[in-house]
Amino acid sequence: MTEAARVRVTDRVAEIAKSDWQGLAAGHPSLRHEVLELLSDCLNRPRSLRFFLLEDASGLTAAAVCEVVLEARVPSPLDASLFGRGARLARALGVPTVPLLLFESPLSSTPTVLARAGEDRSGRLVSLLSAVERYALARGFTVAFANIPARDPELSGAFEHRGYLACEMPAVARLEVKWPDFDGYVQYLRQRSKNAATNARRERQRNERSGTRIRRLPPGEPATPLYELARAHYLRKNHRELPDAPTLLPRLQQSIGEDLICFVAERDGRRTASVAVVRFGGSGWVYWLGFADAQRPNDFTYPNLLYYQLAGESGRLGIDTLFYGTDVLRAKLLRGCSIDAHRLFLKPRSASARLLLRPYLALLDRWRRRRQSGTAK
Question: How far apart are CA 309 and CA 291, in angstroms?
Answer without folding.
Answer: 16
